[in-house]
Amino acid sequence: MDGVVRPGRRLEPQARRDQILAGAVAYFAEVGLGGTTRDLAQRIGITQALLYRYFASKAELVEAVFERVFLDRLSPHWNAEIADRSRPLEERLRHFYRQYAAAIFTYEWMRIFMWAGLAGEALNQRYLSRVGDSLLAQLRDEIAAAGPYGAPDMEAMWALHGSIVYLGIRRFIYQLPTPDDVSPVIDESVDRFLAGIRRPQAG
Amino acid sequence: MDGVVRPGRRLEPQARRDQILAGAVAYFAEVGLGGTTRDLAQRIGITQALLYRYFASKAELVEAVFERVFLDRLSPHWNAEIADRSRPLEERLRHFYRQYAAAIFTYEWMRIFMWAGLAGEALNQRYLSRVGDSLLAQLRDEIAAAGPYGAPDMEAMWALHGSIVYLGIRRFIYQLPTPDDVSPVIDESVDRFLAGIRRPQAG
DNA sequence: TCGCTTGTTGATCATCTGATCACCAGAAAC
DNA sequence: GTTTCTGGTGATCAGATGATCAACAAGCGA
């Protein structure tokens, strides 16, 4: 029992702030950004007033939640790994999407991202623009350069992306049963995609 | 100007109820089910109290919104069309997903479905279970029976489904730019999927 | 043990929100 | 024009919610 402390227990400001933020991420992921400060405080095991010693307003707390959830979600290594032509394209694609899924297939990320998207948060659009302009565009270029495949357009890349992300949506948003291990499913989606754009073996 | 009436204007109960329901669908799609009855009433151009002449509570209004949005979204004809083996499989698949997209790619449906999903509504799960158990399973069987394709498992079918639905998610949830005409994009996703599971031409 | 610092609390405020009700007024019937 | 029915309104209530603040007490230093 780590997060549970008896009432009145004094914590170092940094520790308390972290505790609140972690609790807020879990709470808002579950009930949405419209969740109340009282419910959140009760779940953490502190009084509602204490929240306001560490965050000036609920909006600021939500902002901190976004920052923690969105920050460093896209690994800077991915671009280099995608472009590493010493490895077969198929392996790079599979590897990327296994990594990507490992990064975003969490209850907190998936749901807060979706809540924020519905709320019209600009962060979502910026994040997805980066996914498209940087990662997917690069994947497309690597596929085109690999030889045996016809050059896919961006909509094809988004379709591949969607086929994989939708697995996380089914699991964490709609809470439907999905395979415990997503790796083979992801590999098969990637393989099917590549097979689907393979050039006919003429000449 | 149809929906705009001057204050105090009397409407037939059915017309007023329809007006409120239509307004509620549009309003809740935009701001979520947590939207207030006052804002909704103001948008419709009536007083908040009037809502309660037609709906006993906000929960009942939301229920009516669900009913209107969810009802008859899955056409009963689709199953027969999918199974109509007098037409080529490829054409049936393309046709189905063009129809399906036409049915669900609306601002109201996409967003209310997602709000409801995040809120844990059982309707979503029932709807998606039907999509999987009835439509996707049948599509899978038809593909397997068609001959030139390897039998896809249900995860493969969900991947195809996701690759197409994600287009609507990008447009209506994240409000990112997407092609105006989705038909060619859908056709290409279907074609790519089938090409991806085509048996090697041996013997 | 005492005193000080400051993390924490309970009470409270203003506002928002769902819901109710007495009363008003549009329009059809005569 | 008058009456009658009922759709519509403004006022209001109770509870919820974000935010504030004076007072309390945990824990450290002397």
TrEMBL record, chains A, B:
Membrane spanning residue stretches: none
DNA-binding residues (ranges): 36-55
Keyword DNA-binding carried by entry: yes
SUPFAM superfamilies, per database record: Homeodomain-like
Residue intervals of the HTH tetR-type domain: 14-73
Alphabetized GO MF terms: DNA-binding transcription factor activity; transcription cis-regulatory region binding
Keywords per UniProt: DNA-binding
Domain of life the protein comes from: Bacteria
Protein name: TetR/AcrR family transcriptional regulator
Organism name: Falsiroseomonas algicola
